[in-house]
Amino acid sequence: MDKITIKDLEIYANHGVFPEENVLGQKFLVTAVLHTSTRKAGLTDDLTASVHYGEVSHLIKKIVCDNTWKLLERIAEEVAATILLTYPLVSQVDLTIKKPWAPIGLPLDTVSVEISRGWHTAYIALGSNMGDKEAYLKGAIEALDSAPDCQVTAVSDFLITEPYGGVEQDDFLNGALALRTLLSPEELLDRLHEIEYAAHRERIIHWGPRTLDLDILMYDDLVLDTPDLHIPHIELHKRDFVLIPLAEIAPWKRHPLIGKTVAQMLEEVKDKR
Fold this sequence. Notes:
Alpha-Beta Plaits, 2 domains, 5-stranded antiparallel β-sheet, 11 strands
């Protein structure tokens, strides 16, 4: 990916832990590296095909000057999120916020915070087998798509499937969606749980009936195993009720561990029937 760099933008603002910093203010230096394709702009000399670094610089200044925060980390998060939400051509931002002569009682040049934030692609499985199943699934899709840090880019058709796990219950309505998001995997999991909770999801019986079930299937090409979250989903390659809708929206997506595409995994599941 190409990059546009704004280096050491000088901004006088009022941030810091000490009250005098918030009143007197001081200089901050901001470096922003914008990850974007410059190919079209380079071939056409068309400004609208690129990211206007002058506009971005003024946006950064406005964010930093119009607010007062204690931490450099807070400034960095706000600047990164605003740039990504304002400029669709930017896929990732690398930010460095420097604070010269930070008041720590010792001689130093600068203290700085560096972060990288960007858009990620996640695939989510949807399921419901209680109440108005279709309404629960559509409500979850709307809840994700209406959040500023999430964009639903594709949704599969819904299909009726038999319950999984041996618990006697009603048939499920299942689907899958593709999501463009600024959330980390852990933050996305929390967001999904919030949506499930709003749909009155109860976790009483393992593999039991539920108003709404939302699972992260894949997140970019990430491999993650924690006590609370496994990516890719451990059962992904075994479940036709997940692979069928996922193959509809991303048949080419490759499992980062198994190395097979969604379409290939679905064919293998079908062959084992």
